[in-house]
Structure formats: C-alpha cells, structure tokens
Amino acid sequence: MEKKQYQLGDIVQMKKPHPCGTNEMEIIRMGMDIRIKCVGCKHSVLVPRTKFESKLKKVLRSNAEATEETS
Ligand SMILES: [Zn+2]
After folding, report:
1. Rounded to 5 degrees, what are φ and ψ at 29?
2. pLDDT, position 56
3. Cα(42) to centroid(ligand 1), Å
4. CA of 23 to the centre of ligand 1 (A)
5. How far is the CA of 71 from the centre of ligand 1 (A)?
6. How far apart (Å, rounded) are the C-alpha atoms in residues 17 and 36?
7. Taking the complete model, does pTM exceed 0.85, yes or no?
8. Which domain of life is it from (predicted)?
C-alpha cells in the first residue's frame, strides 16, 4: 500500500461523499486533528488524523504543486 501524501490546502476526495453530494474537501487545518471543509456547501468538520486517513480516497489537487506554478 502506498502512503497517502496530503498537506494543508489540498483538495481531497473521501470514500463517502458529503451529504450535500459533493465529494471534494479542502484541508483547512492540520494538527492532531484535521479540519476539512466541503467545497460544495462550505461545511467544515474536525476529524482525528487516523480517521481522516482511513476515510481518504485520494488527493485530487495538491496545494504544493499549485504554489510552485505561481511563484
Ligand atoms: Zn457538503
């Protein structure tokens, strides 16, 4: 299994879509817990890191790549 790489500002896809129908979440805070914000309805949730990693499907857009292009 490959290790999932994610960081602050990344847009990620979870295994289960948000109830609003959107399956894109933005990582807005990282620590012991990770706060993710639904791109569709702007609702944010705080989840423990371990739970987040088990629910994470893939990283759709990496913030690191985006900032490299603009600088
Ligand atoms: Zn939503």
Report:
1. -155, 135
2. 96
3. 6
4. 8
5. 31
6. 13
7. no
8. Bacteria
- CA 29 – CA 1 distance, rounded (Å): 26
Which H, E and C letters describe 7-61, residue by residue? CCCCEEEECCCCCCCCCCEEEEEECCEEEEEECCCCCEEEEEHHHHHHHEEEEEE
Q: What is the mean pLDDT of each run of 10 residues along the chain (71 residues)?
A: 82 96 97 96 97 95 68 48
Residue type at 57?
Answer: K
Contact status, residue 35 vs residue 28, Cβ threshold 8 Å: yes
Which tokens in the block code for residue 41? 């309805």
Residue 22 · residue 38 · CB < 8 Å: yes
Output the CA 32–ligand 1 centroid distance in Å. Answer: 23
Contact call for residues 60 and 12 (beta carbons, < 8 A): yes
